[in-house]
Amino acid sequence: MNTYDFLIIGAGSIGTPLAYHLAKKGKKVCVLEKHASCGRGQNRAAIGGIRATHSDPAKIKICTMSLDQVRNMHSEHGIDIDWIEGGYLFPVYDTQRERNLKDLLKVQKKFGLNIDWIDADAIKELVPGISDNGLRGGTFSPNDGSASPLKTAGAFFKLATAAGAQFKFYENVLSMEVKDRKVVSVKTNKDTYSAAVIINAAGADAKDIGKMYGVDLPVYPDSHEAGITEPVKPFFKPMVVDIRPDSHSHNYYFYQNIEGQVVFCITPHPKIAGKDTDNTSEFLPLMIKRMLELYPRLRNLRIRRTWRGLYPMTPDGFPVVGVTNEIDNVFNAVGMCGQGYMLGPGLGKIISDMLIDNSKEYDFILKQLTLYRDFSGEEMLK
Ligand SMILES: Cc1cc2nc3c(=O)[nH]c(=O)nc-3n(C[C@H](O)[C@H](O)[C@H](O)COP(=O)(O)OP(=O)(O)OC[C@H]3O[C@@H](n4cnc5c(N)ncnc54)[C@H](O)[C@@H]3O)c2cc1C
Asked: Which pLDDT does position 378 carry in this prediction?
């Protein structure tokens, strides 16, 4: 039997940085991943947006800690992950959304976030050529930004292995043996493992893993499509998020990456539940229509590639982080919805501080993200 202090299931947006933070504290860590390398689950579907400007204390804290790590990855570790501090911009074209975002701004400012309302002229400077027909202004947070999810996973993999973590690729977790409220063994297609603590970081498959230790996790994947254009000279800086819905979609968002490619994705309406990741024929016509209405200047860009990935959704749009009442040695880090990439590095540090140093500093996060909360609320900008 291979015995570890921590056994992490899933080398994705969450599991990979978590392995680094646990191993860095001197623990014996093993990550089981069914794919050939890290980041090949939903991590690689993410378009790379990272912001701390949420509306609730848990995600603000986690993502602020993520931003610190991503922003400093090159200066601290010499690893380039294509970080751009371009900010997040929510342009507004109607009074109702102006009121909503201005109300949210009060909460965000209370948490000390660097975000403000800017007028239409300031928006036109940030995004030259954006439609100004009815543009009222919007919120802008200059310290948010974007980076490459695959390079980020690669960076944390490098740091984690240097710190002593082991990654077992092509290892599909198939079953677990539970005895006296504990998972005593984890079986994969190749081997058997045990650990003092088992961490479920299996993303869209978290519910299936939960069943193996008898806990019903409310994680229901739905799919979202994204695309990327050819590279062109940089012409706008922020991640632009249009939160106006139309009859077939909710919000969509896009930015220009370090190579000059415009990367974009949309939230379909109604949502498409399930794990199918084949491209649909509806995505591009829908996306292009909406993006060109907002930003006509994109019209000559050629699209290189599209893809469809999964959000591991929960009923209220918030992650599930913490222990279970039924099993003593399992910790869940699941249900990351549309924000797992930006939550991963911060959550890795926080979970390692909690589980190894017994830090109580983050108890408010455990309380907010517990599996045993009332899931009837809904996150505004999930
Ligand atoms: C189109 C699109 C755009 C997105 N854009 C953003 C964005 O800009 N910013 C952002 O923060 N988020 C974004 N997301 C969301 C983000 O991709 C997810 O929230 C995040 O990747 C989830 O992280 P995770 O670690 O929980 O899951 P994953 O990264 O999928 O990792 C889970 C891992 O567990 C492994 N696994 C599962 N079952 C088993 C098993 N039985 N045995 C072994 N291994 C197993 C999987 O193979 C996978 O590698 C986007 C998602 C999509 C689809």
From this structure: 74
